[in-house]
Specification:
The protein is an all-alpha fold and about 475 residues long. The chain contains 19 helices and no strands.
Length: about 475
C-alpha cells in the first residue's frame, strides 16, 4: 500500500534548509539577549536605582499576575488568527518593534525620581516588556511544528535554538558587568544590546517557510476545546510542574553578580565564573542532536539533572576561598546543566502532539503559550525568590553598600542549597512523565493521518 502524504504534501516529510536553520538560531541569539538581560540583571538594576530588595520581589510578582493572563490569551489568539502568509512568522515580524522599545523603557527609570515613581515606572515598563516577549516567544517555538513534521528534525532545530540561546546568555553574563560601566550605565548598555539583538532577529522573519499546513477544512478552535486540550494534557502539566520547581529555585545566575561582589571580592570575576559555567554548557549543548539520535531525550535529561544535583552539593563544600578549585567544580557541574538547558523546551512539541492525539484538538499556540508562560513566570519567580533570600539574610541595597558580618556565608548557603533542593524535588515529579520519543513519533504520524488510530494504538499499547 502506498504511503500517505503528510501535511507538507511530500511523502517523505518536510526538511528545513541550512539558511532556515541558521536564521532560526540567530533569532534565539537576539531573543535571549533581551531575556537574559532581564533574567540575570533585573533585580540588581532595580536595587541599584534605589528600589528595596523586598519591594523588588513584590514588583516582579505583581507583573506576573498580568503574565498569567496574557500568555493563554495570546496562545488562543495564535490558534484562532489565520494570516495569509503563515501561522507564526507574521507575529515574529511584529516582535521586531515591540521588544526593543519595551527593553529600553525598563532601563530608563529616572534615578532622581522618588521610590514610588520608580516602582510605578518599573511595573508599567515590565508589563509592556512581558507582553512584547509573549508576542515573540510562542511563535518562534511553535514555528518548528510548521517548518517540519519530522521529530528528529524538530529536535535538531530546537537544539540549534537552545545552543544559540546559550551563546547569547554567555555574552550577556560576561559583557554586561563591564559594559555598563564603560559606556555610561544601564540605559546606554540596554540600547546597544537592543540594537544588536534586533539585527539577529530579522533574518528568520523572511527566510522561514511554513510547510506544514493544517488539514483542509480545519475548523476554528473554540475556547472550550482549548480548555479541554490543556486539562487533558497530563504530561504537559507534569513536565512543566517539575521544571517550574527546578527553575524557580535556580537562583545561581541571578545572584551571580552579588556573589562575585562579596564572596569573591570583585564583581569583574563574574566574567571568569561565567566562562567556567558557559563553555562546558555550550559543548554539552552542541552534543545534544547527536546524543538524541541514539538515546531517548528524556533519559538524557533526567540523568543530567541527577549529576548536576550531586555536583551542586560538591560546589557548596568546596566553598569560595580557593577560586581555582571552585572554577574546576563549577565547570564540572555546568556540563550536565548544558544538556538540561538545551533539552528542557524540547518536550513542548511532544506534549502538543500528545494533546492532539488524546483530545483531537490541534492547539499548537496554546501548547507553546504554556511554555512561554513558564519561561517568564519561572524567571520572575527566580528573581523574586533571589530577592527574598537577599532580604532574609539582611542584604543592604546599593551598588557600593557595606554588608553585615556573616553575610558572605549566608549568601553562599542560599546560592548553592536552594537550587540543589529544587532539583531534588523536581526529580521526584519527573517520575510521572511517561512520554518517550518513539511514542511521540507514532502519535505525530497518527495526528497527520499517515497511519490510522488503530495502527497507532497497536504500536504504543494504548497506555498513554
Amino acid at each position: 500500500m502506498a504511503r500517505n502524504k503528510n501535511r507538507s504534501g511530500h511523502p517523505d516529510g518536510a526538511l528545513t534548509s541550512m539558511v532556515e536553520r541558521g536564521s532560526y538560531g540567530l533569532y534565539f541569539v537576539g531573543q535571549n539577549i533581551y531575556y537574559q538581560l532581564l533574567a540575570i540583571f533585573i533585580i540588581v538594576y532595580f536595587m541599584d536605582v534605589g528600589i528595596p530588595a523586598l519591594t523588588v520581589s513584590v514588583v516582579i510578582l505583581v507583573v506576573k499576575i498580568w503574565d498569567a493572563i496574557n500568555d493563554p490569551i495570546f496562545g488562543g489568539i495564535v490558534d484562532r488568527v489565520k494570516f495569509k502568509k503563515g501561522k507564526f512568522v507574521p507575529w515574529l515580524r511584529i516582535s521586531l518593534f515591540a521588544i526593543p522599545v519595551a527593553t529600553v523603557l525598563i532601563f530608563a527609570i529616572p534615578e532622581g525620581a522618588s521610590v514610588g515613581v520608580k516602582v510605578a515606572w518599573g511595573i508599567v515598563a515590565y508589563v509592556l516588556w512581558d507582553t512584547a516577549y509573549t508576542i515573540c516567544d510562542v511563535p518562534i517555538f511553535g514555528l518548528v511544528t510548521t517548518l517540519t513534521d519530522k521529530l528528529q528534525e524538530r529536535t535538531t532545530l530546537m537544539a540549534i535554538g537552545r545552543v544559540a540561546a546559550m551563546f547569547a546568555g554567555a555574552a550577556v553574563a560576561v559583557l554586561v558587568p563591564g559594559l555598563r560601566t564603560q559606556i555610561g550605565g544601564w540605559l546606554p548598555m540596554a540600547i546597544l544590546l537592543s540594537v544588536i539583538a534586533l539585527i539577529t532577529m530579522v533574518p528568520i522573519c523572511f527566510t522561514a517557510k511554513e510547510r506544514i499546513r493544517p488539514p483542509a477544512g480545519e475548523k476554528e478552535i473554540s475556547i472550550r476545546e482549548m480548555f479541554k486540550f490543556l486539562t487533558h494534557n497530563k504530561y504537559m502539566l507534569i513536565i512543566y510542574g517539575a521544571l517550574l520547581i527546578s527553575s524557580t529555585t535556580s537562583i545561581t545566575n541571578t545572584l551571580g553578580i552579588i556573589v562575585c561582589r562579596y564572596n569573591l571580592g570583585d564583581e569583574a570575576l563574574m566574567v571568569t565564573v561565567s566562562a567556567a559555567m558557559i563553555v562546558p554548557s555550550i559543548i554539552a549543548g552542541v552534543l545534544v542532536p547527536f546524543l538524541t539520535k541514539r538515546f531517548d531525550k528524556f533519559k538524557i535529561f533526567v540523568w543530567s539533572t541527577v549529576i548536576a544535583t550531586v555536583a551542586g552539593g560538591l560546589v557548596y563544600f568546596v566553598g569560595y576561598e580557593n577560586l581555582t578549585l571552585l572554577l574546576i567544580v563549577v565547570a564540572i557541574r555546568a556540563f550536565p546543566i548544558g544538556f538540561t538547558t538545551v533539552l528542557m523546551f524540547m518536550f513542548t512539541p511532544d506534549c502538543a502532539e500528545y494533546g492532539h492525539y488524546v483530545t483531537g484538538v490541534r492547539a499548537i499556540g496554546i501548547a507553546f503559550s504554556v511554555q512561554t508562560f513558564f519561561a517568564k513566570f519561572s524567571a520572575a519567580l527566580t528573581a523574586s525568590v533571589a530577592a527574598l533570600c537577599l532580604s532574609l539574610i539582611g542584604y543592604v541595597e546599593g551598588a557600593n553598600a557595606t554588608q553585615a558580618a556573616g553575610f558572605n556565608d549566608k549568601l553562599w548557603a542560599v546560592y548553592i542549597i536552594v537550587p540543589t533542593v529544587g532539583s531534588l524535588v523536581s526529580l521526584f515529579a519527573l517520575r510521572f512523565y511517561k512520554l518517550r520519543d518513539k511514542t511521540v513519533q507514532v502519535m505525530t504520524m497518527a495526528n497527520a493521518g499517515e497511519i490510522t488510530r488503530e495502527e497507532a494504538e497497536a504500536q504504543i499499547g494504548g497506555k498513554y
